[in-house]
């Protein structure tokens, strides 16, 4: 009777909660064994409930094949119930069937069977077409399986039902981001941040894209909004990571390091932060060559030791990961010992390229390793070999994943051309960088240097000015170069303003007061 089945359900649920799975299973199987194919609607409903609880019991016991059998049986009976229902009752029964299909999909997800997971979610949608949660789960399954077109299509279907659905917008933005459709991705990340200013995933992507677009003020605004939206955001690892990359892009390495340090223990943001910290410690000035001068060798060794300590925190999970191996080799090179640089070079070369099957030509496998090897060649005074290797990345398609390493490869090659007085080739490479990254401080700085070499003072001023703007007028070296070229271009008032800005932050900065500011003042008086 209905009363008996209700009591049985309560007893089975209690046994399940107590962890008495064997007894729970016996209580549930007893009525099922007595009537495998019920025709009474009431009994059919009860059997569906029993099978759903049995699936949970078998899951706890690790009997995954039985979980599948339970859920499939529950679905089979539920489909029969739908066939015998009509009107609003049928709609309700279809929704229940949709939930069962979603559970089947979740089971396949746990077993990493993407195709069956997707099929189960699609079946769930057939029974309940307007359930946004199921559409989102299907979109996520497509995304995880790398079926981006189908994921985008599903996101569009969700947006048609709920145009402001954050998860769908974010998924669509992530796909555009991965496919280098930067403008479209930025619009969508912007839309997410309008509704959720402290969605740190969207914020971190938006900051990167804002810098690439040269619209740094937009990144500033979004960081302020996140802070206003959540007053204690400074405690959030995601917020600190976002601030870290923002400061890194502007060349404020000390501040960036502080922000990353606050995020490095976090499960979601920790690994990214540690890799950023390693790169910052190994190249605090963000030099194109990536190694500091000989007089800083003591500090360099200390930084390398600190970087190794941070990287070691990731060892358990990443000892065979290519990114981990790359950073480990970067640390080896940063010690400055010739034997270590040679060993690092050999490692970089092993990671950098691979032979194509069709012919004996080598293709670039790891852009970061190419950059590391090229820097090692230059450090070991083997610049022609560096040049030859860097030319190989000229055919590598640009992607956000490789962007920073690829752009640094182009700039290193441009620097080599500059030192060989091949200004046209160098300029072409710098323009290539600026096309992809409109706020590249190093690109503007190198372009300024090329014009300075040719005594084209105004052109040099224009490029150094851009570098000065994007470093937030905080880098004294760039400030000095800008002031020097302003003096040469007879822009004396502007020269004095820049000198004062540098001296306000660095009162003892060498030469700038006597050689530039005082000369500019003398020129004005005469």
UniProtKB/TrEMBL annotation:
<keyword id="KW-0802">TPR repeat</keyword>
<dbReference type="InterPro" id="IPR011990">
    <property type="entry name" value="TPR-like_helical_dom_sf"/>
</dbReference>
<comment type="similarity">
    <text>Belongs to the TTC21 family.</text>
</comment>
<dbReference type="InterPro" id="IPR040364">
    <property type="entry name" value="TTC21A/TTC21B"/>
</dbReference>
<feature type="domain" description="Tetratricopeptide repeat protein 21A/21B fifth ARM repeats">
    <location>
        <begin position="167"/>
        <end position="282"/>
    </location>
</feature>
<dbReference type="InterPro" id="IPR056834">
    <property type="entry name" value="ARM_TT21_C"/>
</dbReference>
<dbReference type="Pfam" id="PF25063">
    <property type="entry name" value="ARM_TT21_C"/>
</dbReference>
<dbReference type="GO" id="GO:0005929">
    <property type="term" value="C:cilium"/>
</dbReference>
<dbReference type="Pfam" id="PF25068">
    <property type="entry name" value="ARM_TT21_4th"/>
</dbReference>
<feature type="domain" description="Tetratricopeptide repeat protein 21A/21B C-terminal ARM">
    <location>
        <begin position="307"/>
        <end position="521"/>
    </location>
</feature>
<dbReference type="Pfam" id="PF25064">
    <property type="entry name" value="ARM_TT21_5th"/>
</dbReference>
<dbReference type="GO" id="GO:0030991">
    <property type="term" value="C:intraciliary transport particle A"/>
</dbReference>
<keyword id="KW-0677">Repeat</keyword>
<dbReference type="GO" id="GO:0061512">
    <property type="term" value="P:protein localization to cilium"/>
</dbReference>
<dbReference type="GO" id="GO:0035721">
    <property type="term" value="P:intraciliary retrograde transport"/>
</dbReference>
<protein>
    <recommendedName>
        <fullName>Tetratricopeptide repeat protein 21B</fullName>
    </recommendedName>
</protein>
<dbReference type="InterPro" id="IPR056836">
    <property type="entry name" value="ARM_TT21_4th"/>
</dbReference>
<dbReference type="InterPro" id="IPR019734">
    <property type="entry name" value="TPR_rpt"/>
</dbReference>
<feature type="domain" description="Tetratricopeptide repeat protein 21A/21B fourth ARM">
    <location>
        <begin position="3"/>
        <end position="125"/>
    </location>
</feature>
<dbReference type="InterPro" id="IPR056835">
    <property type="entry name" value="ARM_TT21_5th"/>
</dbReference>
């Amino acid at each position: 009777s209905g009363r008996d089945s209700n009591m049985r359900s309560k007893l089975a649920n209690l046994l399940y909660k107590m962890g008495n799975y064997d007894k729970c299973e016996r209580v549930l199987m007893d009525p099922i064994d007595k009537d495998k194919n019920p025709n009474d609607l009431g009994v059919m409903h009860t059997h569906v409930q029993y099978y759903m609880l049995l699936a949970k019991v078998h899951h706890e016991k690790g009997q995954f094949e039985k979980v599948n059998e339970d859920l499939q049986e529950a679905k089979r009976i539920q489909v029969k119930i739908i066939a015998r229902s009509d009107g609003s009752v049928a709609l309700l029964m279809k929704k229940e069937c949709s939930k069962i299909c979603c559970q089947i999909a979740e089971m396949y997800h746990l077993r990493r069977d993407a195709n069956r997971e997707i099929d189960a979610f699609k079946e769930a949608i057939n029974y309940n077409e307007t359930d946004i949660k199921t559409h989102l789960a299907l979109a996520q399954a497509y995304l995880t399986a790398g079926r981006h077109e189908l994921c985008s299509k599903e996101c569009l279907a969700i947006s048609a039902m709920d145009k402001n659905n954050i998860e769908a917008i974010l998924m669509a933005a992530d796909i555009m981001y991965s496919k280098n459709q930067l403008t479209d991705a930025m619009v969508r990340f912007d839309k997410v941040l309008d509704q959720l200013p402290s969605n740190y995933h969207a914020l971190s992507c938006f900051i990167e894209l804002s810098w690439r677009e040269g619209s740094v003020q937009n990144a500033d605004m979004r960081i302020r909004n996140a802070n206003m939206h959540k007053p204690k955001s400074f405690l959030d690892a995601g917020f600190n990571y976002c601030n870290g990359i923002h400061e890194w892009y502007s060349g404020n390495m000390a501040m960036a390091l502080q922000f990353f340090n606050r995020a490095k223990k976090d499960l979601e943001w920790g690994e990214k932060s540690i890799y950023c910290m390693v790169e910052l410690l190994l190249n605090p000035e963000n030099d194109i060559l990536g190694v500091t001068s000989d007089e800083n060798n003591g500090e360099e060794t200390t930084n390398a030791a600190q970087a190794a300590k941070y990287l070691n925190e990731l060892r358990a999970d990443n000892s065979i990961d290519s990114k981990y191996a790359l950073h480990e080799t970067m640390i080896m090179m940063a010690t400055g010992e010739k034997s270590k640089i040679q060993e690092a070079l050999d490692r970089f070369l092993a990671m950098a390229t691979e032979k194509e099957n069709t012919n004996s030509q080598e293709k670039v496998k790891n852009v970061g390793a190419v950059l590391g090897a090229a820097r090692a060649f230059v450090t070991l005074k083997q610049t022609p070999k560096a040049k030859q290797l860097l030319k190989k990345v000229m055919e590598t398609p640009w992607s956000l994943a490789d962007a920073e390493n690829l752009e640094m490869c182009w700039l290193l090659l441009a620097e080599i051309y500059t030192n060989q007085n091949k200004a046209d080739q160098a300029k072409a490479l710098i323009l290539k960088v600026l096309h992809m990254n409109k706020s590249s401080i190093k690109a503007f700085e190198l372009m300024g240097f090329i014009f300075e070499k040719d005594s084209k003072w105004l052109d040099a001023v224009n490029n150094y000015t851009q570098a000065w703007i994007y470093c937030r007028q905080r880098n004294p070296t760039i400030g000095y170069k800008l002031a020097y070229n302003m003096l040469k271009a007879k822009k004396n008032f502007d020269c004095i303003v820049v000198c004062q800005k540098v001296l306000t932050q660095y009162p003892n900065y060498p030469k700038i007061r006597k050689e530039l500011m005082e000369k500019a003042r003398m020129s004005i008086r005469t």
